[in-house]
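Entry 14. Structure prediction run on the chain below.
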Amino acid sequence: MPSRHPEEIGCGHVVERYVTRTYAGLPRYLVLNGGRFLGPRWRHTTRFTRHLIDDAAAITDEELEALLGYEWRSRLTAAWLIGVDRRERFRARIGDLLLASEVCYSGGAYCFALARFGTHADAEILTAYLDRYLPRTDLHYDQPAALGALLRLDAHLGTRHADRFTEPDGLWDEWVKGVGRLGYPSCSPVEQRRSTDLQCEFADGWCRP
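Output returned:
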């Protein structure tokens, strides 16, 4: 998928307005990626969250498309705004970007958005991603975030899509061993589910009904 600067499609304002807006000297995309706003100790959480919710409601579909068509910072931010506002019409676009895995860092935000949508269609996208990328024990992409989102959806939907990935000595265990040899720390399915729950419960607690 080719990358285009938003200026090329008449949306040159979107990066400054939605992506690089700063909080305590940190741009929004960096705060979203680091997750510091999810904890109670960051004193800018209330302001950051109110702005995030307001922007998620205000941003147009055209502006979101402009961000999704650009680089990782813009895609990460757009996916968070889509997830917060539950704009399910972007499901296919988010799914395509996740499966393509073209850029770093943004995949976790795609998984958050799919977890927020919360349907069987979203579980199918996450399952397809894990089918494609868990066998790649040489790649550490967004497998943990995808598994965490799928586990949350399984609990919500009463399904068991994740079972075949997490069975003992299954695809998840083999992937953890493989990327461990590359120097990445191990992580458990329980930890990944907890991380997704934290993100979604944060959004549930702050967003308008």
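Strands lie at 22-23, 26-27.
Filed with the rest of this week's runs.
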